[in-house]
Amino acid sequence: MSSRWSRDTVKTSLGTLYLVPTPIGNLEDMTPRAVRLLREVHWVACEDTRVTGRLLKHFDIQKPLVSYHEFNERARAEQLIEVLRTGESIAVVSDAGSPGISDPAYRIVRMAMEHDVTVTPLPGACAIIPALTGSGLPTDRFFFEGFLPVKSTARRKRLERLREFEHTLVFYESVHRLTRCLGDMAEVLGERQACIAREISKKFEEFLRGSLPELAAVSEKRSLKGEFVIVVAGKPKRGKGEHA
User: Fold this and answer.
1) Are 193 and 210 in contact (CB under 8 A)?
2) Does the predicted model carry a pTM greater than 0.85?
3) Separation of alpha carbons 230 and 71, rounded Å
4) Where are the alpha helices (DSSP H) in 47-105?
5) pLDDT, tens digit, 9 for 90 and up, residues 28-38
6) Domains recognised in the chain with CATH numbers
């Protein structure tokens, strides 16, 4: 009789570190595999135990939670590695989206690799891809910058470095800096086409498209709320016969 094993069920002397994406808004985006693994692991390491506690309660999952965030990342990662070395498995989750994408996870993944612990990342919710595919801008090559610097001077300096990229550019931005960020983008990158993806997968999801100056004006006028991904066209390619 043949038996079928998934990689998730293979037992080793060391535990497995799972990187489990969680919904960025719509709970229906939680995958069956993610739910199963959260039920099977020994521990769940999360940014905010209150946020993750509510998520687990929704799916009727009871697991011990341990905080793992940017302020305790180094010390907690060392503790979690010790747990993994005893053979217990751990799921790392962020408050929303995929762990490691503008969220803690890098350090514990590196440490797990150094200790020969298996790291299994699950595919799942992440704001970058729906923002990009819904933007109407080229998707074949893109560059994810994440959050730009908080201060305008540093932000413009970074944008000047990105100005020569021909890839579509993808950014995260907070509600408190959105208008100022779009203004800096308009000044540095000019009239490029762009898209603001707001509240992806949530009730008030919205895609605003136009030139950077137009979007900066819309943001200032409407005082947009929510969580944002900004997608910006790359540097236009020179046509034949054009010179630098």
Assistant:
1) yes
2) yes
3) 27
4) 49-58, 73-85
5) 999 999 999 99
6) 7-121 (3.40.1010.10), 128-232 (3.30.950.10)
